[in-house]
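Aggregate trends can hide what the representation actually does to any particular protein. For completeness, the protein is quoted in full, as a sequence line and a line of structure tokens.
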Amino acid sequence: MGTPTTFERKEVKYFLTYQQRAKLQDLMDIHMSPDSFGKSTIMNIYYDTDNKQLIRHSMEKPVYKEKLRVRSYGTATPQATVFVELKKKYKGIVYKRRVSMTQLDAKLWLEKDELPPKDTQIIREIDYFTHAHPLKPSVLLSYQREAFFGKADSEFRMTFDDMILWRDYDMCLCKGAYGEALLPKGTQLLEVKAAFGMPLWLTKFFSENNIFKMSYSKYGNAYIAMTQKNNDRRNKYSA
């Protein structure tokens, strides 16, 4: 499969135990195929303002919200390909603009305001966003992901994220995946991504196993954990 630069779809999230995941996999073997990335380590640096304006606004559940991140598949060298992504959500629909470049070019662009060598509409759109918000690295999130796409509809996707870790230090994609855990042990995060409706076999599985959709943001929960950690640190030194 190719690497699209724009997306428009709904994304629905669920928590699954390992036992539920194994049961679901039997159905997926019939209806889904593994993505070309297969099992991979995904690393993201989320950019935000000093006072975390973007994530605080997002957690207020507005009609419209935006996030900016840089993603790599595995630990990235300076010349490795990464993806700069502007993710927007409006009335439950996710719109994503993505452009690829080297990690070095992405870092120079977002942290030193040096435009990347190529000039595209998506780069101009992201550059406008970065100038409207004074951004800097806010948190690094990493996780193990398995991705699948539908055999009948290749635009229908399911991803399973495990070992979701966050850190607010060493924020370089070159330094590997480590940090503090967000998910309880034995739990995976399933994201169902569809431009249209969800297939009947999947809705039936959720119903029969009492699995319900939920609102969950990795960055949002990392922000909550980060805030709690900072509060605990302040309380410790003020006691």
Summary: The chain is about 30% helix and 40% strand.
